[in-house]
């Protein structure tokens, strides 16, 4: 008993000295990671997002997607934010991202505001995680305590983005496999797909369902006839792929359970959405039915799945770095003159 007490007291000392447990960072994130070093970070992120969403409501959906597209490619390390350079092949040009990702400029706006308050402290990967949660909240969706302490990676991988990010024409088995390889369950798949309760998609990604599904010469039989007509009006046969349709025709910008009640009446926008309900005998049907009638159950599963997704492959401790500018690793930012050299470690070293 006494020796246990001694160990406990010693631990308290070490924690008081260093502010962290002395164990190697077993990829442990913590919602109060910045409580000493940047206590106001959440309000700062929130203010920028709230401001932007006044003129661009869809941005709230775009920011949730950005976190997902970060985490599914070598973990939540802000690799998706890295621009092309001599050594980086940007994930932004991967098929699921090209002409599709939004919010990169908003993340830079957030980063600038955060750097002003707490320089060299908050990672771009944590900003993406915070932005996703705040965007959910600002759309009347669930809130949760965002585990923090991610570090930013030094690499990107475009071919991995092409490989890991699911496609709208994937079969349910392919979707399950894509999520399983990230450690996410079938319930996580159904809950996270519920993010398609807001935001928009381009005609090019679902137009084949409207006219010539799987080269049958007919529309996708799992499409509601009324909805089919509405979508055909937005996306004429042979027309451009660029018009946008709302994922949720009932409440386009609100984070609610209607995504699931839409699936029940065959109003899923993407093939990958409708399959969760219309694949015969699938174990996802009962999960859709549950979320369609019980918004609390959906929100609880969504929160848990977002936290799980936010933990994928994170860098912690002294891995990676805290980027000064989210589009470039620090050495490149210095080279490009994008940051004040005197305020970076590289600058300190080279000026000595
Ligand atoms: C299950 C597999 C998934 C597939 C196949 C998929 C596919 C897509 C596609 C094709 C778009 C439209 C892109 C465009 O037209 O430019 C989209 C948009 C979106 N996705 Fe997913 N997605 C999936 C899962 C997720 C997950 C897990 C989340 C977040 C947790 C998410 C959040 C969003 C949001 C919010 C939008 C709208 C973005 C905007 O309006 O800017 N998706 N998704
Ligand atoms: C925290 O940030 C918000 C939004 O930027 C600001 O209104 C507030 O005054 C800040 N609080 C502190 C203690 O700095
Ligand atoms: C809010 O947006 C306005 C107009 O775009 C801009 O001038 C202002 O600086 C923004 N405020 C914050 C806190 O981002
Ligand atoms: C990074 O690339 C994007 C296009 O993907 C571009 O809009 C942006 O200006 C670039 N950022 C910087 C800081 O060069
Ligand atoms: C990117 O991921 C692929 C797997 O698709 C892997 O084979 C390759 O080594 C990775 N490239 C880099 C530069 O990490
Ligand atoms: C459907 O697509 C296939 C393959 O592109 C094509 O051969 C066929 O003519 C199309 N059918 C219709 C009705 O457009
Ligand atoms: C199609 O949608 C309407 C509502 O717009 C609904 O009443 C009808 O039941 C749906 N049809 C099917 C087959 O789900």
Q: Please identify the top-level CATH class of the largest domain.
A: Mainly Alpha
End-to-end gap: 52 Å
- Count of distinct structural domains: 2
Strand coverage percent: under 5%
With strands numbered from the N-terminus, the spatial order across the biggest sheet is: 1-2
What's the total helix number?
A: 16
What name does CATH use for the topology of the largest domain?
Peroxidase, domain 1
Instruction: Return residue spans where pLDDT drops below 50 for at least 5 consecutive residues.
Output: 6-26, 346-352
Hetero groups in this structure are:
protoporphyrin IX containing FE, 2-acetamido-2-deoxy-beta-D-glucopyranose
Would you identify the CATH architecture of the largest domain?
Orthogonal Bundle
Let me know the number of strands. 2
Mean pLDDT: 92
Approximate helicity band: 40-55%
Structural class: mainly alpha
**Rg for CA atoms:** 22 Å
Order of helices and strands: HHHHHHHHEHHEHHHHHH
Q: Please describe the biggest sheet, giving its number of strands, its sense, and whether it closes into a barrel.
A: 2 strands, antiparallel
The best one-word shape is globular
Site (Transition state stabilizer): 65
Domain Plant heme peroxidase family profile: 28-330
InterPro entries: Haem_peroxidase (IPR002016), Haem_peroxidase_sf (IPR010255), Peroxidase_pln (IPR000823), Peroxidases_heam-ligand_BS (IPR019793), Secretory_peroxidase (IPR033905)
Enzyme class: oxidoreductase
């Amino acid at each position: 008993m006494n020796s246990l007490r001694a160990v406990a007291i010693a631990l308290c000392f070490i924690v008081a000295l260093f502010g962290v447990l002395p164990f190697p960072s077993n990829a442990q994130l913590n919602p109060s990671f910045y409580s000493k070093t940047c206590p106001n970070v959440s309000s700062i992120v929130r203010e920028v997002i709230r401001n932007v969403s006044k003129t661009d409501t869809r941005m709230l959906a775009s920011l949730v997607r950005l976190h997902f597209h970060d985490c599914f490619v070598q973990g939540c390390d802000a690799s998706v934010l890295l621009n092309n350079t001599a050594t980086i092949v940007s994930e932004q040009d991967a098929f699921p991202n090209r002409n599709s990702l939004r919010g990169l400029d908003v993340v830079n706006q957030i980063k600038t505001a955060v750097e002003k308050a707490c320089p060299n402290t908050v990672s771009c990967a944590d900003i993406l995680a915070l932005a996703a949660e705040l965007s959910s909240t600002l759309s009347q969706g669930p809130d949760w305590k965002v585990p923090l302490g991610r570090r930013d990676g030094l690499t990107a991988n475009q071919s991995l983005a092409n490989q890991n990010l699911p496609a709208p024409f994937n079969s349910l088995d392919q979707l399950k496999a894509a999520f399983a390889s990230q450690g996410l369950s079938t319930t996580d798949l159904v809950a996270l797909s519920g993010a398609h309760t807001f935001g928009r998609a381009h005609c090019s990604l679902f137009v084949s369902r409207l006219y010539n599904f799987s080269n049958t010469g007919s529309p996708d039989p799992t499409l509601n006839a009324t909805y089919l007509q509405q979508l055909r009006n937005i996306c004429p046969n042979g027309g451009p792929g660029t018009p946008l349709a709302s994922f949720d025709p009932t409440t386009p910008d609100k984070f609610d359970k209607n995504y699931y009640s839409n699936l029940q009446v065959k109003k899923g926008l993407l093939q990958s959405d409708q399959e969760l309900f219309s694949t015969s005998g699938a174990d996802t049907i009962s999960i859709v039915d549950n979320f369609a009638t019980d918004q609390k159950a959906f929100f609880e599963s969504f929160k848990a799945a977002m936290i799980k997704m936010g933990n994928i492959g994170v860098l912690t401790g002294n891995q990676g770095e805290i980027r000064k500018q989210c589009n470039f690793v620090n050495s490149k930012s210095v080279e490009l003159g994008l940051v004040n050299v005197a305020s970076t470690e590289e600058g300190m070293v080279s000026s000595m």
